[in-house]
Amino acid sequence: MSGALRLQGQGNGQGHAIGPAHVPSEPWNPVDGGVSPSLEFDLLRSAIGEAASSLEDLMVRTDRSSANILEFQVEMLRDPVIGDMAAEYIAEGQNAALAWVTALEEYIAGFEQSEDGDIRARAVDVIDIRDRVLRILEGRPPADFPKGSVFVGKDMAPSLFLAHDWTGGGGIALAAGSTASHVALLARAKGVPMVVGVGGLAIESEVPVLVDGGTGLVVVHPSGADIAVAAMGEKTAPQTPARFAPPSPASLPACRLEVLVNISDIAEIHSLDSSVCNGIGLLRTEFLLSSAADLANEEKQFHLYVEMLDWAAGKPVTIRLFDLGGDKPLGGFAVEERNPFLGMRGIRLLLAMPAMLRIQARALLRAAALGPMKVLLPMVTFPKEVEDTRRIFEEEAAGLVQRNIDIGVPDIGMMVEVPAAAMMLDTFEAADFFSLGTNDLAQFLTASARDSVSVANLYDQATPVLLRLIAQTVRIAHDMDKPIGICGDLAGNPALLPSLIASGILQISVAPSQLPAVKAVLAQARMEG
Ligand code: PEP
Ligand code: MG
Description:
Number of domains: 3
Largest sheet: 8 strands, mixed
Oligomer: single chain
CATH class of the largest domain: Alpha Beta
Distance between the termini: 52 Å
Bound molecules: phosphoenolpyruvate, magnesium ion
Number of strands: 16
Number of helices: 21
Helix content: 40-55%
């Protein structure tokens, strides 16, 4: 094993990968710079100009009646009034995409509600220019790193993980990070070998690296023997680590437990049949979109939600509003903060940026007409946040009805992931249902950031306090006659099922990769919901 450099970190699960290192030239910074009004204004002006020029090109190649429509669209794009309105929204702090959509929304509603049928018919042309400019604003996706390589860095953005093509294998070695972070959760769900907390990682790109997600070992310049040891370890490693050991069927009380899935990546539904679960218990919408323009794109979001409803084939689909902030910056909204997990995240950010919330609300209300859907609010702390969100949904629903657009009325529930909300659950009459987010609850209860390897041992000791709080919270929810389930990672640990069931939990939602182990335990005890 000569010449090899061995570094010990913490494994994020099972499996090993060998590949050339990919070291990004710029380290990931969770704060993506915020919105610069002059930059956003330039972006928008050039996107509008590009859209108008492409329509003008089309005009010269088309017949007279189509040219009329295109001429109308070009006139609208060149109309300085819309650009000026958008500029005002940008000056108020919105990014180019949100400002553009907000400015055009009033026009679209005006056309749709006109008494004159010819004018009403023009609404679709305005929607088309709205989406043309949005597509240009999407820009090109950031360059992916080579397939099959081992990503080596301080930490990794969840969006970079999701944009990478993992079909050629590869793995991740992080100097910092933690197994409770969002990127670690995504890597486990996809079976990508990952090691966190390796410390100093002075590795150059292209150097061969071995990552062992089981033992937490990273080997630079691995020898044949190193590779053989990792492969052997994988074969002989127990399929289920001791702390996840399944309970004996006798310890499970007789009751029915519904098991739903957490979806973080569209690929997950492509490899899963909806007949094996009771629906989607958590759709992390912030992971399905990859740019600021997507966050403003109602049509794109609508189609994604409909795809989920189609997949679920009549089973409930719980869609969480964008949970941006913390370790999930997207679209220039992350504010520079000392403690981003305790800052502008989830529903706080959405209520501070209502234009983004209103677009998502419209996409959801329209999709809700097509199947059983529930809406879940992230990071709720106080009842007013649920009440304010509900009011925005009601206003958007009324607007859509006025425009003769079909809508459904989804239940609106909340994540219980902030201790204040858990302790005061009885004050949340405004919520229709509750879902316990134990990943965040654990970090707040133990005061240990979920993305920090230095306090991971404290975070990992949260189970007893979580179980106590879950039991209290479930009792309150039952007294309020409101459904409560768990969608945090803890629900996917078969060893904890007896405690959860004993506390009155009737519904859990787990990552697709956790589903087989959970189902096996329940099948043994004949308790599937
Ligand atoms: C949680 O916090 O438990 C949860 C399910 O949400 P996320 O992991 O996306 O923060
Ligand atoms: Mg959470």
